[in-house]
Amino acid sequence: MSTPLKIGPKSVAWLRQVGIRSQEDLAAVGAVAAYVKCKRAGFRPSLNMLYALEGTLLGCHWQKVPEARRAELSAQAEAQVALIPPSRGRAAALAVSAVRDVSAEAGEAAPMEFSFGFDEPGSSSAEDH
Known about the structure:
The protein is mainly α.
């Protein structure tokens, strides 16, 4: 069984849409590549999302990611995002208004549950957005 991502619902929705559905998927591609995938898909992830993805991988809150590591992540992401060709009049991906667990077996899809400790600097879990 895969470990669910412990980040905010909008970030989870964006990541799911680019094929990253679990912490194992995130670990396989890395924080920077996941961030860049979201950018390529037309989403507008913040640097805080990038740091939260790294925090998720490190098992800490995004604000606990060392400043030097944040600068390194930011530089890597900026270099990769610069390689993305400009859009040619294509609309960005649609806004995410709700997140539902579509893997529910019976009846209507149930709302997904999220932990929002990412906004709490004292939180020991790695969460974002």
